[in-house]
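Q&A log
Question type: sequence-to-structure
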Amino acid sequence: MPKDGSTNRARILDAAEQLVIDHGYAATSVDRVLEAAGTSKGAFFHHFDSKLALARALTERYVAADLDQLNAGLDATADVADPAERVIAFLRYYEDRGDEIMGAQSNCLYVAVLTERQLLDAGTADLVRGAVQAWRAEIARLLSAAADGRATDLGDVEDLADHVFTTFEGAFLLCRATGSPQHMRAQLGVLRRLVGAALGVDDRDAARST
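Response status: OK
Response body:
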């Protein structure tokens, strides 16, 4: 183990994340986290002052990974010259990685955080709002560039940006409810085709990101 105990901290966070997603924050006791992580209370309180501190650290880590996902899609499509084709390539980037996304996480932590009054009052939910706003702003920026000078059926780009984000969240729920990870890829594919039709882009000819 590294001298700074980072492996133990990560193990606690991994265990807590799955428990909070599966059972909610209120039903996830520190003892339950320790049992799942295979560690002691001493180790827990070495890294976290309280259960609330654990929740904040857990949310910070999840948000950072989520924003990394956003930036990965933006970076992978940065060289697509046509703005409308870039939107399609951006959506297809996640569609192509749908199984990978579901393999990394079985559900979204955001719902668990936003439904807990204690976390709302403690400001932890503000981290989630910041991440959601970042996705919304970047997607809206892509859509605005794509719609510029085109006759489209996109409607309000901010509403559509919200729809892109909620498609991810809805797909998580659908995958969880049915026990099949394939819905993530399928729903993102439906979204890509609908946006492509609204932009008048034949996505068979659109640039494909690597």
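Response note: The radius of gyration is 19 Å.
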